[in-house]
Structures are given as structure tokens and as C-alpha cells.
Task: structure prediction
Amino acid sequence: MELVEAIILAVLAASTPLLIAATGELVTERSGVLNLGVEGMMIVGAACGFAGAWLTGSIFVGALFGIVAGTLMSLIFALMALGLAVNQVATGLALTILGIGLSGLIGAGFVGERLTPAAHLSIPGLTDIPLIGRVLFGEDAFVYFSIALIIGVWWFLYRTRAGLILRACGDNHVSAHALGYPVLRIRTFAVMFGGACAGLAGAYLPLAYTPFFIPGMTAGRGWIALALVVFSSWRPGRLVVGAYLFGAVTILQLHAQGWGVGIPSQFMSALPYLATVIVLVLLSRARTGGSTAPAALGTVFVPDR
Amino acid sequence: MRKSLLALAAGLLLAGSVSAASAADKLKVGFIYLGPIGDLGWTYQHDVGRLALVKELGDKIETTYLENVPEGPDAERAIEQLVRAGNKLIFTTSFGYMDPTLKVAKKYPNVHFEHATGYKRNPNMSTYSAKWYQGRYIQGLIAAKMSKSGVLGYIGSFPIPEVVSGINATILAAQTINPNIKVKIIWANTWFDPGKEADAAKALIDQGADVIMQHTDSPAAMQIASERGKLAFGQDSEMIKFGPKTQLTSILDTWGPYYIARVKAELDGTWKSEDTWGGLDSHMFAMAPYTNMPDDVKKMAEDAQAAITAGKLHPFKCPIVGQDGKPVECKGGDHLDDGQILGMNFYVKGIDDKLPGK
Result:
């Protein structure tokens, strides 16, 4: 029983950065913008988040630093891809390369320092319940926030007028523009939201997951977040399934190795990717209808008047 | 007129080469790094070696390094860049640079190359590596003494001979203390991913391991062990800062003496292609101070280190029994020979797991 609890705790910790970063990218893509710079924004968020927490001694300030850093990075993207109508794929890739370099520079002075990680919730009585106590009432603030965030995004996209307008920009920017909506301004906000989430997801790594900073510590998580958005067919509900499934298979394959199941470890390491793809393909096959991608995703929009 | 123009051009060329020669009074030495210097592990230790070299011979040489150079074909471009910049001795510091280094070495026979941890050589290309399995053996002794649960946790990177020989050396040592010792092995299939290394450490501890050993590069596992009140060994560099009450010791890569010796040979004109595989005796690596253990365990570790250094103790002393229960052929007299260790692709008896790919 204790082992089951430990596994669930590890799964939640491993999934949370993916979920936060992917939630932001989902909103960005729903507005019709493809920002491939998630990895770059995450790693800068990690460096700045660590710097903020280390200088002030507060995890909360560190998280804010991460959010601001991610947002600033996304503004560079917005300026290039929206303001100057540069190719979004190229700009996003450049943003990742820039982010990796920049984070090394920012973090250079902090390599080798360690932090006290984010505190875990502790409610006497509730946190001590066997099996579910620590899972439900003993997480750090990032985990609860990530769940609130994806619920908030779902509500925004499907239950508010602003969400409808944002989706309209993503599906047909010409019509949205003709109806008088400021497409570029809406997209800029969506890109900034994506950047803020990526920055926070990055900051989660040195503030809660592995409380030290090392260059390159995101190790490709930004790319996984991007992939999760595609596999979720741009739906928040499936994104949650995808992120937790990916985290679960990642952790379970490590445990399976420890038990000596005898399946080649290379296959086990590939399993999270395989499992996520298969489940999400099955999910999207179950629904009829064509592609669910925002129709205007990745296309440049220049208002003609 | 035409002749004088040619003469002028020749004169300019000559002047050019002369000025280049005077600038090249100092020997130029180049380094190719896999990670960032700030990785606190593999690349960091190579740079510590480079700095030792600069400190020792700084008035005679000039060093250049390129960091974050990916392994594979891209590396060729980076190595060639160092050649064109006038470097005469180039150290390529990761296994995956083997073929690119060889390719560039064949193209530039007048430049000398040194490739770490590989096995392909050329008249102008040496290889160098360290017998880290000796350090792993000492760690195995300590681990068996310190473990209360009798279960060790081992985080592997890739199932290559260097890592496999480390696991075998560890378990062979541990068995001399506790014949029933168990080891749980998790392959991360990466050298560097702090999150995944942390997850692997958590999984091992959750499954009952109380001493964590790693063959991956970040201090994440050390920190998890520290959080959970377990013990652990560092890797490549000193990691005690991440587990002041956790680190038992760490295998420290100490490349400085080798780099100094090879550059001196280059300066004297005595450099030649060699295969260096040094152990504790030749200071290719060192053990971090033995900490967080009782005095008798510390003494045992120090004695073992002294015996290995003196050549009295060989970690792969025969008979070595494989997982199938059959003894392994003993090619080195009373121990396995270097070739058997460098190509090790089997687990010894007592490891209750299957080697990936076997």
C-alpha cells in the first residue's frame, strides 16, 4: 500500500511540469499560433525561478520570476511572429536555442547551489490517511495550481465569450478580423499566457522537483509538452489524461526495472511515448469528424486594413 | 609588371606566414566538451583538468574549448574548427566523438588528437580512459557494510561495457561482505536528465534500497537520497554539497595530471600515439574523502584503496562466475584481462536481473 502511494506521488510530481507547460501551449495554439519555443521558455523559467528563490529565499518569488521570465521570452516570439509576421516554426525553434543559451548565462552563478524545495501541504488528520492522504492533501502548491489551471482553461475556452473569440481567431482569423476582433492583440495575450505557463513549468523543476539548477535541466520536457498538445487534439480534458498517463508510464517503467521484469530497458524507456500516442489515438478515433486542429494554426496573419 | 606583382603577392604570403608563426610561439591546445562546463559532472571535471594544465604550463600554451558539442557527425565540424584555428593538440572528451575525431585526424596528419574513452587510434590519435571499476569495487565494499536492508540501488545510464563492469565490480565487492546482497538496477537510458534520475532514485528507495549508486551525471539522486535519509555515492565530481549527511564517497575524475603530461610531451616533441588506461596508481581518478561512515568501514575502504593502488587487489580476480553459474574464462592469469573488462557484456552471479539486450 505504501508503495502504491509512493508511486502515485512520484507520478504527480513527474506529470506536473508537463501539464502546466502543455496547458499554456494549448491556449496559444487554440488562438492559431504555433510556438515551438516551449523548451526555451521553460529553461529560462528554470534559471530565473531558481535565481529568484535563491536570492530572496522564497519559493513563491521564485515561481513569479519564472512566470515573468517565460512571459518576456514569449514576447520576443510575439514581436517576431505576430508583429513582424515571421515564420512561426523558425521563430519558435530560434527561441528554444536562445533560451538554452540564455539560461546557461543566467544560471552560471547558481550552479552548485541548492535550495530547500517547495513545502508540501500538511493538514493534521487528513494528510495521514493511508494511501490517499498524502496524494490528496500532501502535495506542493504547484500540483494543486496545475489542476486549477487546466480547469480554469477549460472553463475559459468553452464557457466564456472571450474563450469563444479566442478559438474563433484560431479557426479563421480572417472572419474574426472581419467581425472586428483584434486578432493580433488576442493572439499576443495567448502567446504571453503560453510563455507564463512554460516559465512556471520550468521553475517547478529547480523549486520543487530537483531543487538545484544545472544548465539543460529541462532535458526535453518542453518538446514533450508540445507533443501532448497535439496528441490531446487540443482538448483540455484529454491533455490531463495524456500528461498523467505519460508521467505514470515513466514512473512505472522505472519500478518495473527495479522489480527485474526482464523487458529490455530501452523498450521500457520508449513506453511512455508509445502508450501516450496509442491511448490518445484511440480517444480521437472514438469520435467521428475530421481534424480537430485549429484551422488557422501556424499561419501568418497580416491585417489588411 | 606581372612578375613583380607575383613577387609582391609571394612576399605578402611570406609575411603572413611569418606573423602567424610568431603568434604561434605558444602551443595551441583545444578541447571539445560534451556538456556545459556547469554540469557539475563529466564536462566540469575535464575543465578542471584543463585549468590545472593552464596553471602548470600557461606561459607556454594557449587553450581553447568548445562546450555543448553534440556527439556524432556535428562534432566533426567543431573539431575541424579547432584545427583551422591553429590548435596542434586536441582533446575530444566523450566516447561519441570517436569516429569524428578519427576522420579529422586522418585529414590532418600533422595535428595530434587525444580521444577520451574510445578504442580507435591512429598514428596521430591517442586514446585515454580510467579504470573506474576500481573505484566501484571500493564503493561496493562500503555499500555492503552500510546497507541495513541488504538491497543496493543502482542507476545506470546505458548498458555499455563501462557501466556493466562498474555494476559487476560493485556486486563482487559487496558479496565479499554479504554473500546475499541484492542489487536493483534501473537504466535511465540517458546520461543527464535530473528529473528522471530523481525519479529512478525514488523508485529504488521505494522498493527498499537504502544505498544509492549512480552512473548518470547529475546530483539529483544524491539529493533524493538525502531527502529520504538514505546513503549514496557521488559520480564524476564531489557532490557532498547535495548530501552532506548522505555522500559516502565519490569517484572523482582527475584529468589534470594526464593533460599536463601529454602537453609536456607535445612541447618536447616526444608525443606519440598511445593507449592510456590508468587506474588509482596513475592518478587518472581519485576517491573523494570517505564520509558518513564508522571508522572501521572507513579503514576498510582505505585499505582496499591502498591494495588496489599497489596492485595487490584486483576487482576482477578469478574465479568470476557468470549468471549462468559457469566460470568466465580467465585470460589475464589470476584475473580477467583488460580486453575482457573493456568489452564486458554479462552480469556476474548474484545479480537478479537480466542485462538489457542479452
Q: What stands out?
A: Chain A is about 70% helix and 0% strand.
